[in-house]
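Protocol step 6 of 9: fold each sequence in the batch and record its structure tokens directly after the sequence line. For illustration, a two-sequence batch is reproduced in full.

Sequence one:
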Amino acid sequence: MAKGPTVCAAVAGNPISHSLTPFLFKKVAQHLESHGHTITFHTCEKIQHTSLIDALAWGHAKITAIAKEDEGADPTKREIWLSITSPLKHQLPIDSGTEWSIGEPMLASVNQMRHDGHVWKAANTDGAGLLMVAREFGFDFNFTDDLDRPLLCMTGGGSTARACAASWTEAGGKIWWKEGRRNLSPRGPWKDSIVNPRDVCDHIGRRLHIDFDQPAGSTPEIKGERIDAGLDAPVFLSVSYSDGEFESVIENEWGLFLDGRWLLAAQHLQGWAQLYYPSATDDLPTLSELMDILISD
């Protein structure tokens, strides 16, 4: 049995009352325990803050409390794990000196942070999570012809949108930016992947539709007759989810509609693999396995 750290974990932001992140932390840890890894959560909470500094201070206060309770414990085995959501995601200064494990610091967006007993480390798993969902549903990024490349049809230009656009571009996909409360900068790393609106009809690659302006805690209304959408159907991925019962995938005449838990679970798994506990990457549950856990519970 590999003895892991004692962790103070939380999801931080506002609103976070609907968040399933603490549940995911515990369920992934249970899965890893069955593979010989032991992670002990001293606390796993939802902390409502509008300031990233306050969220980091919460973590340090918790670690200090543990140190007082167990003075003989190895201080390097005490860690802080934070899942960061709005409005905290853009509050980490570019010149903070924080180490990055995945993501582009210049995009000014962070959604995972870890203090390993020495320094703060950061990651943005939004884009990696989006690609994980896309590949789970059969998207192929190996096409060389621009017209065949997967097309990300996106609304919004905020931090999550920018991170996903950058990762989609890096993977080889194309982007149709439709509209949004904030513009998607034409000078970002995605600048050469943007498809002109007048050329969208000619694009034959498979499409993934996503609205990054969707309010947190909401579920989009889905209309249309339920039929078998087929393997090459367009995918409509929600960025949010609400409390209560849900259908993870709905197929109808328009395509596949995926509940926001798919994106949440994928981002969370990337957080474990890239930041929280990389040594156990090969033993993590698959995305489908983690979704099965969410459905059964």
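Sequence two, same batch, same settings:
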Amino acid sequence: MVAERLGEHLRATVTSGSGRGLSNDGALLADVRSVLASCRTLIAGRDPQRGYEAAKAISGIGEAVTRLGLAIDRKGRLGTGRGSWGEAMLAAVGPACEDRFAACDRLEESDDDAVIAALARDPTGFAAGPRLPGRRPETGPAARDAHGQATADGRARLSARLAEIAEAAELLAAPEGDRARMRGGWATGARIDTLTGYAAVESPRGRLHHLVRLDENGRVGSYAVLAPTEWNFHAEGPLVATLRLNSYPPGGEGFARAERIAGLYDPCVGFEVAIEERRDA
């Protein structure tokens, strides 16, 4: 889970609209490829604390993340090295862009009972378009961040993601006791009744819910998955609310703004931006 979080965050940042323009350095791309390959090694199931291959992967990840300019200080805050890729990424989404963002309504573990109850009533419909009364929930790094309520500009959102990359690199190298304690709240689950149970996982992009029902023979009768993207990209969700706060000048500037904002909400699939002039009847 730690390696997956690190690898997915790094891949999403490098391939985002802002990241593509800053990621054409050969040495940087070599580091990115190395980290992603090492993450795949760890995700494959090897014990991160035993074996030469896993130890080498963890060491390489730590060194590469440092070269990217990402580190966590003693107060748990993200620090980016001067002139580093991390610093450039934050500058690319900073206040000069003049993007505006809606406040973050965090989806948390305390919401699980309501989410699972709704998912159990309508597995297909709720998974495709989840909603909580009076809420506009968001999930992911910005929501997990202790300061996620205030997103004055894109730096706050991206900083939360970059901080999780640096934290994950440290976590991989930490002693097992520290790792177990630090990731203790990443996954929870419970039985609803004799044949039904759920799990909620803090995946890279946010809180991921699974609901499974067994039949009388103990086989899987139904399985519902509610992905984080369905919250963040809901038609009445946080991305749409943010898009409505901004204006989109004609030409490349408006297109770049829409793409930049969408990328900061980290969709789980590729996306394309099209801007059409609104024509009221």
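Proceed to step 7 once all outputs are recorded. Observation for sequence two: The chain has one domain: 2-264.
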